[in-house]
Amino acid sequence: MNSNRRVLHLILYSTGLFLLLSIAAVYSGFSWLPFSRVNLVSDVLKNPTDTMLVTNDPKGKDSLDIPVVIESKPASDFSLYHQPATINGFYSDTTRPSIDHFLTKLADLQAGKPTKIRIAYFGDSMIEGDLLTQTLRELLQAKFGGTGVGFVPITSAVSKFRQTVTASYSTTWTDDNFKDSKTGRLYLSGHTFHSDNAWVQMTDQTRYDSSSVVEKSLLHGAGNTQVVVNGQSVRVSGSKPVNRTPLGNSGSRGIRLEVADNSLPVYGISFESASGVFVDNFSFRGITGVEFARIDSGFLHAISLENPYDLIVFQYGVNLLFRPNDKNFSWYARTMLPILKKIRGAFPETDFVLVSTADRAFRYGGEYRSAVGIDSLVKVQAVLAYETGSAFYNQFETMGGTNSIVDWARQKPALANQDYVHPNHRGAAILGTRFYEAILKEYNKYTVRKK
User: Mean pLDDT over residues 218-241, rounded?
Assistant: First the structure.
């Protein structure tokens, strides 16, 4: 066999293998971002469980112009996604409330029934340092009750920046995370910590009633070992992938934890009163949400059993807008759809809200203006919410729409940084307040219907 024929056979075998892998990936729901972009059949075949179809998707084409076939749902109106400052269930009847399960729990709490309501708020650098979520937490706890900052990871790149928790820790922690590890057992924060000789000290700086009793709990993986809490030895044990061990139950705001067993996966410490609303900030800089493909379903389900949530909020997008002229984000829809379905499947009793990208700007023709692809990305994110049965919140329109980040950065005092990407503390407080007001709007709808 001459060399040309060997080369031809190699090409045919490789293409055939790649074709089989592409078909298998579509029907198995396998998702890995680099492979999703080169999958040979992703535009021809669809997972039979998917109802969202993005067709005629040439490279570079604006997502706004790509035909999208959306499952027809009775009494639904997809076009409602444009509405600002609204948690939108896409209901044609706009008096019908979204996130019913969560609202029912709020009503029980306000009626005096002791209960814990947990919100997991996921995002990138837009919410790091507890931005936005600290305002949301403060307002919800003032209205419905509760004391405590909620979940805090063991270490954080922004621990000196965060105002709601002061933290110091040794440099001897090993941090497995979205960026530096391939394990499928990362906690919701995107981190899992280990050490054979490490300590962390935290103080909750949220507003406390002088009589409040706040339980400090360690969230950890399987293990059976001794840790030191405020100088006292405490047994930590559990056979499940996720376990909650109480470390102290008092009015004290602070805690010091020492760990000397490298086999114990440590996720973080939670500060919660016995009843109320708790908002956990899960920020991870530089991600888009596709990283959650790496966390396996069984582990997510274990989290839902040990630390259940009543509302999960997903806010990503600005890191997808890293090139000024990108307009086509249909690949993101294809990648994120099975990820969102996996997370929803692991938290079957939880309400979900997908929050769109906020505004961000690039320099075009010598002046800063909103990224040309923002409308396209917001539409794709709305489709993801619609197709997964999630509610949608349009952060871009809530900020003011086109060029709002430019206006925010130039206001006196400024509401955003001069990078034209990130709201500052003042701007984040406005966004947190508007999201809280959107929750109250849904809650008022709920209470009217229940009368």
Answer: 97
* Same domain? 140 vs 173: no
- Judge whether 44 lies within some domain: no
What SS3 state is found at 298?
helix
> Is pLDDT above 50 for 52?
no
187 and 248 share one domain:
yes
Per the structure, the complete domain to which residue 374 belongs is given by 50-146+275-450
Question: Span 35-52, mean pLDDT?
Answer: 48
- 372 belongs to a structural domain: yes
**CATH number of the domain that residue 200 is part of:** 2.60.120.1360
Task: Indicate whether 182 and 122 sit together in one domain.
Answer: no
Cβ–Cβ < 8 Å for 396, 355: no
- Cβ(382)–Cβ(81) under 8 Å? yes
pLDDT at 42: 47
Could you report the per-residue pLDDT of 88-111, keeping only the tens digit for each? 999 999 999 999 999 999 999 999
Q: Which of 436, 431, 434 is closest to 132 using CA atoms?
A: 431
How many Å apart are CA 323 and CA 327, to the nearest integer? 9
Query: Over 351-402, what HEC string results?
Result: EEEEECCCCCEEEECCEEEECCCHHHHHHHHHHHHHHCCCEEEEHHHHHCCC
Q: Which of 211, 245, 274 lies at the terminal end of a domain, its last residue?
A: 274
Q: Are 166 and 202 in contact (CB under 8 A)?
A: yes
CA distance 271 to 130: 14
Q: How confident is the model at residue 252 (pLDDT cuts 50, 70, 90)?
A: confident
Q: Answer yes or no: do 120 and 67 share one domain.
A: yes
CA distance 58 to 37: 12
90 & 126 share domain: yes
Q: Name beta bridge partners: 229.
A: 232, 257
Give the pLDDT of residue 33. Answer: 44
In whole angstroms, how far apart are CA 187 and each of 289, 312, 326? 14, 15, 32
* Overall average pLDDT of the 146-158 stretch: 96
**Which residues, 6+ apart, have CB-to-CB distance to 339 below 8 Å?**
31, 289, 290, 292, 293
Tell which of 213, 240, 274 closes a domain: 274
Q: Report whether pLDDT(69) > 60.
A: no
Domain count, the chain: 2
Beta bridge partners of 367: 364
